[in-house]
Design a protein that fits this description.
Elements (H helix, E strand, L loop, with lengths): L2 H5 L2 H29 L15 H5 L6 E6 L3 H11 L4 E6 L2 H10 L4 E5 L7 H10 L8 E5 L5 H9 L4 E4 L4 H84 L6 H28 L2 H5 L1 H17 L2 E7 L7 H22 L3 E9 L2 E8 L15 H11 L4 E6 L5 E8 L12 E7 L1
Parallel strand pairs: 1-2, 1-3, 3-4, 4-5, 6-7
Antiparallel strand pairs: 6-11, 7-8, 8-10, 9-10
């Protein structure tokens, strides 16, 4: 390579020609010894050699790095390769810009050491092509030049995307240190990318597992509701009919008992009363498993029935506000909202110490909202784990399956308001009467 063509100055050429051969010989002479030392097969490093960054490469042996050396001078390529190659770092050479581009297309490099002046495609043009490729856009490029004080070439180098500009022959220690820094950055970035990819994969697996668990929970809820409905029907139809038959038989016997035998008459009346109580218990159990009103009267009727039954059992005053008309829901959605109402009223009875409960169902902005508000002691922070959290988790999973959510508004000593939101299909959104069928607080 003619240094004079690089700078265009006879003075600089003479100055460079006196300095380059001696130092470049030193580089050629030291390269094999340094390579042997770095590979652990020769003498120990000299005192003048500083501690170098490649040690961090050795700390991460799983990440392999490579350096691309681009120079049309065979001796320079060989010297740089022997200087920079390590056991965990490969030095790849290219004798032209075209060959360098082919190398970059096939492989990623931690850094590129490139001569500026080469026949055909020079270093500046090669660097621009490398920068145009997305995958190699951020690969550090160090330019080597045989000219001193060439500010214009340095400016062109930095403009082409170089991170450093070194005059030949380079100081071996300085060049090794610079390359070591870029290799260390490459290694850390590779490890970071690998960790990010592993975390993304783990996150995707976790989401898939969560979706599978939710699908399983929804399936189990559906199966449980079907089983409840079946058991409820069997209890109501079969056991109820049999108890009715027993009642008829006992009544028939009671009518034919001797009138003068009061003891037998009392026993017969007690048996009839016991049969009636059993029939009522059977109906209560069947209703608890699957309220018939939920199938016969729809969601609004089932909630109204549930609130009235809650008032009878607990003595807590209740107020129910229902729309005059509700959009049609499929059976699973209606069941989910009814079960949430049951769970919330059960929580009020067990924990709230309330004297008043208000249940409201409304439709707004394509959303069905069911809220239960009490004037009890409040729940403080919503439990997210533990036995007390199972109710909230169950309610959340019921509405989450349909794209809904649960909101809790609570203040200590001021009661609690829990609202379940269920999105409605666009086909079900129609003009609904804004009037509410509202019942006052019943004593």
């Amino acid at each position: 390579m003619n240094t004079a063509t690089t700078i265009g100055s006879e003075h600089v050429y003479r100055r460079a020609s006196r300095t380059v051969p001696a130092t470049w010989k030193l580089l050629h002479r030291d390269a094999p010894r340094r390579a042997m030392t770095d590979r652990g097969g020769g003498a120990a490093a000299t005192e003048s050699e500083p501690e170098q960054g490649p040690q961090s490469d050795q700390a991460n042996p799983a990440v392999e790095s490579a350096i691309l050396i681009v120079d049309d001078d065979a001796r320079s390529r060989m010297a740089l390769k022997e200087l920079l190659q390590r056991r965990d770092r490969m030095a790849v050479t290219a004798e032209s810009g075209e060959e360098a581009l082919r190398r970059v297309l096939r492989q990623d490099f931690a850094a590129i050491i490139m001569d500026v002046q080469m026949p055909g495609m020079d270093g500046f043009e090669t660097a621009r092509f490398i920068r145009d490729r997305e995958r190699s856009r951020h690969t550090p490029i160090i330019f080597l030049t045989g000219a001193y004080d060439d500010n214009q070439s340095m400016f062109r180098g930095y403009e082409a995307g170089a991170v450093d500009y070194i005059v030949k022959p380079p100081n071996p220690d300085v060049l090794q240190s610079k390359v070591a820094i870029f290799v260390d950055l490459y290694t850390k970035n590779a490890l970071l990318r690998r960790e990010v990819a592993e975390r993304k994969l783990a996150l995707q697996q976790l989401r898939t597992s969560e979706e599978n668990l939710r699908a399983l929970a929804l399936h189990l809820q559906s199966v449980r509701e079907e089983e409840r409905a079946r058991i409820s029907r069997e209890i109501h139809d079969e056991l109820g009919q049999e108890l009715t038959g027993v009642k008829i038989q006992v009544a028939w016997i009671a009518k034919r008992l001797p009138r003068g035998n009061k003891a037998l008459q009392e026993k017969a009346e007690a048996a009839l009363e016991l049969v009636d109580q059993t029939i009522q218990s059977v109906r209560k159990i069947a209703s608890g498993l699957r309220p018939a009103v939920s199938d016969q009267l729809g969601l609004a009727g089932a909630i109204d029935w549930q609130v009235k039954d809650f008032r009878k059992r607990t003595g807590i005053r209740c107020k129910v506000s229902l729309p005059a008309e509700l959009p049609a829901l499929d059976q699973d959605q209606a069941t989910a909202m009814f079960r949430i109402c049951q769970e919330l009223l059960t929580n009020v009875a067990r924990h709230a110490e309330a004297t008043r409960v208000e249940v409201t169902v409304s439709v707004d902005d394509a959303m069905l909202a069911l809220s239960v508000e009490d004037n009890g002691k409040g729940i403080g922070r919503v439990p997210l784990s533990g036995p007390k959290a199972l109710g909230f988790v169950g309610m959340h999973e019921r509405v989450h399956a349909y794209g809904g959510r649960i909101d809790v508004d609570h203040e200590r000593s001021k009661g609690t308001k829990v609202t379940a939101f269920l999105p409605l299909p666009s086909s079900e959104i129609r003009a609904l009467s804004s009037s509410l069928r509202t019942g006052g607080f019943e004593p």
